[in-house]
């Protein structure tokens, strides 16, 4: 485990993880533009927050600045109820403080509590060593598949998954109670 200076621990405590609000979306988009090569139009963020408001979280510092976010959704066309992490970003100035882990845990918790998700999936660049470490070593994801030329620059992606619980432990009526919620989130 990495040693943290007192000011680093203090900085991490001064950042709050909370559900995103519509007025956070432009700051989330700005964070995305500063951190990632994959960028989205504003309407994509609006679609997510209108469809799955429980799953979108931000990291807000003591001054009210959005310093990170997780954009997540539920996969509606699948046979198994599961979530998907669309995008995760933390500003360079706030990395190595555990914020990405806290953001991901908030999204995971919401997927389980709100939608009774069986698992969560995400895509990550094969070359992104730091993200793979976070997902595999810290959060317990496993590589499920490789998607060739997934990204715009033709880099391959790992399709990663993390199971939330085994099917044996699921309540028989749980899947039936999720279907109407997932159907309600489907845009017409």
Give a structural overview.
There is one protein chain. This protein has 188 residues and is of the alpha+beta class. It is 36% helix and 25% strand. It has 6 helices and 7 strands, in the order αβααβββαβαββα. A 7-stranded mixed sheet has the order 1-2-3-4-5-7-6, sandwiched between helices. The N and C termini lie far apart (48 Å).
Search tags:
alpha+beta; single chain; 36% helix; 6 helices; 7-stranded mixed beta sheet; 7 strands; 188 residues; globular; disordered N terminus
Q: What share of residues are in beta strands?
A: 25-35%
Q: Any idea what the radius of gyration is?
A: 17 Å
Give the beta-strand count.
Answer: 7
Classification by helices and strands: alpha+beta
The strands making up the biggest β-sheet line up spatially as 1-2-3-4-5-7-6
Biggest sheet statistics: 7 strands, mixed
Given the structure, what is the number of helices? 6
- N-to-C CA distance: 48 Å
Give me the strand/helix succession.
Answer: HEHHEEEHEHEEH
Averaged pLDDT: 83
Indicate the overall shape: globular
The quaternary structure here is: single chain
């Amino acid at each position: 485990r990495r040693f943290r200076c007192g000011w680093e621990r203090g900085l991490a405590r001064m950042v709050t993880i909370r559900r995103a609000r519509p007025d956070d979306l432009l700051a989330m988009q700005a964070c995305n533009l500063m951190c990632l090569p994959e960028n989205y139009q504003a309407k994509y963020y609006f679609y997510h927050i209108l469809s799955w408001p429980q799953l979108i979280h931000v990291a807000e510092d003591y001054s009210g600045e959005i310093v990170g976010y997780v954009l997540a959704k539920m996969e509606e066309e699948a046979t198994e109820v599961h979530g998907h992490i669309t995008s995760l970003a933390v500003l360079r100035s706030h990395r190595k403080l555990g914020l990405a882990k806290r953001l991901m845990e908030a999204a995971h918790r919401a997927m389980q509590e709100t939608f009774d998700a069986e698992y969560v999936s995400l895509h990550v660049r094969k070359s992104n060593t730091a993200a793979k470490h976070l997902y595999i070593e810290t959060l317990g994801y496993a590589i499920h598949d490789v998607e060739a030329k997934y990204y715009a620059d033709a880099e391959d992606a790992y399709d990663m998954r993390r199971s939330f619980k085994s099917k044996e432990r699921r309540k028989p009526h749980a899947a039936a109670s999720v279907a109407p919620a997932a159907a309600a989130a489907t845009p017409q």
